[in-house]
Amino acid sequence: MHIAIAGNIGSGKTTLTELLAKHFQWEPHYESADDNPYLNSFYEDMQRWSFNLQIYFLDNRFKKIVKIRKSGKTVIQDRTIYEDAYIFAPNLHSMNLMTTRDFDNYRSLFELISSLIQPPDLLIYLRSTVPTLVNQIQKRGREYESAIRLDYLKNLNERYEEWIKDYTLGKLLIVDVDEVNFPEDPEDLGTVIERINAELHGLF
Description:
Distance between the termini: 20 Å
CATH topology: Rossmann fold
Helix content: 55-70%
Number of helices: 8
């Protein structure tokens, strides 16, 4: 099985991936910022590097999905290929940080790739307000994230909500991060685990 976690920057995807992998004995696949050769450059000059960054993500995530499906294991993945195409790339385009030519090229490539892959068996969406995102981003203190603007996070949040509203590719579970403190409260984590079991196995 392929379980994927989606959510804005700072919503807790990596933390939940780690906790669920440990609980269910699933194999975790993390989004590694350290290996990304474009991220620092992108945050310094978004207009120059936006297309390069999105193509890197598309290539990287496509390879991961192929690997996940071939492995025959149950894998939990931090972030999905769909978020780049429906949230990050369109947002960069609308902010004039990616040209229409580059965006059209990117979308054409994404549509081809998405026709060749299976969607996740379960998508877990971490819904969060901007103040909560900012708090989490500040807590982890990554230098390249210190320049992220509030309007950028707000725009991303709006796009996430639009995407999730129309998501029909498979099972979907929405977790409200403002109300559920799964990183620090074992009871809250237990509630999330129960809901996942219900989605995967129809227990309730």
